[in-house]
Amino acid sequence: MIVLSAESDPNLPTQMLAAGVQAYLLKPFDFQRFFTVLDVSLASGDRSATDTPRSQRTVLYVDDNPVSVRLVELILQGRPALRLISAARGAQGLALAREHRPALLLLDLRLPDMSGEDVLGAVLADPILRSTPVVIFSAAAEPASIERLLALGARAYVTKPLDIVQFLTVVDGCLGGGQLWPVAQP
């Protein structure tokens, strides 16, 4: 078990490690350190960090910002049940969605060739893709826009900057309701 905490009590890490926790990371933490600890934990045979093995499921992320794509890639990297593919343009994302039939589509609203709202509409209008959960993942956080996109059929709306716990909770919920990864409770 890996504990991520905002608690700054200097005795807490020692207590947690004595209780059997493999690692204790204080927030905010370095992602590289987190993934190193995660890799060591998984390699040591600690399977408490993963759910029952499932076949790999595809997550398609449509966003033209390579930093955002890399961040999501790093977050999902330790989840062997998921395979991330990405597209920088809406039309490319629709083509990949038709080809790969992802279990989840993450969608930015501001794309260079078409709006994310148009991509959402195309997914929902496509008989093959319409059951694919679409999560809007955008820096645009206007309440009216969020309500409109949810009413149009987006499954969820996650705003940037990213709250990792919220993001993983949404991903888990959209992929069948079960957690593929433990989510810390605030």
A few lines on this structure:
The protein has 186 residues and is an alpha/beta fold. The chain has helices spanning 12-18, 31-43, 66-77, 90-100, 116-125, 143-152, 164-174, and strands at 2-5, 23-26, 57-62, 82-87, 104-107, 134-138, 156-159.
What does it look like?
The chain has 186 residues and is α/β, with parallel strands linked by helices. It has two domains: 2-49, no CATH class; 57-174, Response regulator (Rossmann fold, 3-Layer(aba) Sandwich). It has helices at residues 12-18, 31-43, 66-77, 90-100, 116-125, 143-152, 164-174, and strands at residues 2-5, 23-26, 57-62, 82-87, 104-107, 134-138, 156-159. The strands form two sheets. The chain has a five-stranded parallel sheet, sandwiched between helices. A two-stranded parallel sheet has the order 1-2. Strand 6 (134-138), helix 6 and strand 7 form a beta-alpha-beta unit. Helix 4 packs parallel to helix 5. 23% of the residues are buried. Mean pLDDT is 82; it is low at 46-54 and 178-186.
Secondary-structure map:
Elements: E1 2-5, H1 12-18, E2 23-26, H2 31-43, E3 57-62, H3 66-77, E4 82-87, H4 90-100, E5 104-107, H5 116-125, E6 134-138, H6 143-152, E7 156-159, H7 164-174
Helix pairs in contact: 4-5
